[in-house]
Write a structure and sequence with these properties.
With 167 residues, the chain is an alpha+beta fold. The longest helix has 34 residues, at 121-154. The chain has helices at residues 20-28, 32-36, 121-154, and strands at 7-16, 41-49, 53-60, 68-76, 81-89, 95-104, 107-116. The chain has a single domain, classed as START domain (Alpha-D-Glucose-1,6-Bisphosphate, Chain A, domain 4), CATH 3.30.530. It has a seven-stranded antiparallel beta sheet.
Length: 167
């Protein structure tokens, strides 16, 4: 296990037009990765899941290159944050911390910090830029999906939603 401290390589800030409830549903939904984010994930295979976390092997695109990563999501809902850690495979040792704050009933502010094991400064900057580009696209896709789901709920749809109360 690597005991070296991680290095902050980038920070992403954004306002999401979705409630905290929709954001938490999205975070805990590992199945949507290859469906909604097919430009980044070719497949996802669940290893473990609890109400507060999930761990899955993801195949990165393009799948023919065979790059996989074991990703673990850990939530801290009372403190409005969650971590994505790469436990094995491509990017092992990296960590993404996302901090949420409620702006209003249907708007959530996010701050995302990307950390990696120590890298030379040029490489750290390149990795940070790659994270920023990836997360811009992932959050664009997630935001559209969450807004669409909220519109359906507003029209009376009663599909799959979380049963926990988000404060």
């Amino acid at each position: 296990m690597n005991t070296e401290p991680l290095t902050l390589v980038a920070t992403y800030r954004r306002t999401i037009h979705a409630s905290l409830e929709r954001v938490w549903e999205n975070v805990l939904d590992w199945e949507h990765l290859p469906w909604l984010h097919r430009s980044a994930f070719a497949a996802a295979e669940l290893v473990e899941q609890t109400p507060e976390m999930w761990r899955a092997w993801v195949t990165l695109t393009p799948a023919v290159q065979g790059k996989r990563a074991l990703i673990e999501i850990q939530t801290d809902m009372p403190n409005l944050r969650y971590w994505s850690q790469t436990r094995d495979g491509q990017g092992t040792g990296s960590e993404v911390l996302t901090m949420l704050s409620r702006v209003d009933e249907r708007t959530t502010a996010i701050i995302v910090e990307f950390r990696t094991p120590p890298l030379p400064s040029e490489k750290a900057q390149a990795v940070g830029n790659a994270y920023l580009q990836l997360y811009q696209r992932l959050w664009d896709e997630d935001e559209r999906m969450m807004m669409h789901k909220q519109a359906l709920i507003d029209q009376g749809w009663r599909g799959k939603t979380t049963e926990r109360k988000i404060v």
